[in-house]
Design a protein that fits this description.
Order of helices and strands: EHEEEHEEHEHEHHEHH
Number of helices: 8
Helix content: 40-55%
Bound molecules: adenosine-5'-diphosphate, guanosine-5'-monophosphate
Distance between the termini: 34 Å
Largest sheet: 5 strands, parallel
Radius of gyration: 19 Å
Strand content: 15-25%
Amino acid sequence: MSNDTNNFRRLGNLLVITAPSGAGKSTLVKRLRTSISEIAFSISYTTRPARSGEEHGRDYFFVSISEFEKMKDENQFLEWAKVHSNYYGTHKKTVTEILLQGYDVILDIDVQGAEQIKLAMPEAVLIFIMPPSFSALSERLYSRDLDSKSVIEHRLKAASKEVACYDKFDYVIINDDLDSATTALVSVAQAERLRPNRMSNKLKHILTSFPLS
Ligand code: ADP
Ligand code: 5GP
């Protein structure tokens, strides 16, 4: 990146989005990405087998347990966790590089991962997506028709613990009506861009137009 301050771009925000499986995170993240510019999605590494329709490098980087452990030992992950019997991790270097380019980065990660991120990067913005009810969550998981009954039951069992953690987050969005939830998520991302430390580049030109007092 150039050292020329005129070319200096703001550092992006790290938006951490967490929800119990089936609450609508992927749907909302897709809508967020089409609603605002200069935002990128961090593709995680996982040892979970790919579901039908998923692509290596688009949905996840699908790796073996030994490959994952090697990356973990080499400290390549910003955070990692075992979720629903599989390992998942966020690649540190990729995220840092995108943030330095001034883009916001979205992480779709679980509660344990969100907690690790807050410790490593306190300025990260933690957003919890809450389903409208347990029965709605169950219906969404079954009607999505992506996982077996045993996988879905395992995920539903984990959901009670996950929703109880909502108060560790900076924002909570109830995903009942999809359009309202999308508006709320876009509003959070836009509002976070208006924090003074994110505005310094734009403010510089305005401030220098004022005579020194
Ligand atoms: P997650 O990524 O959190 O596991 P998905 O985004 O895959 O969840 O959503 C789970 C299912 O629920 C999908 O079939 C999706 O179309 C549906 N869904 C998402 N949001 C809503 C909503 N507000 N109302 C009804 N169905 C929804
Ligand atoms: P799925 O298998 O349905 O794609 O994801 C299962 C869970 O793993 C979701 O809660 C998702 O947010 C979480 N997850 C995906 N990638 C990561 C990651 O890199 N780190 C952590 N901690 N969780 C992740």
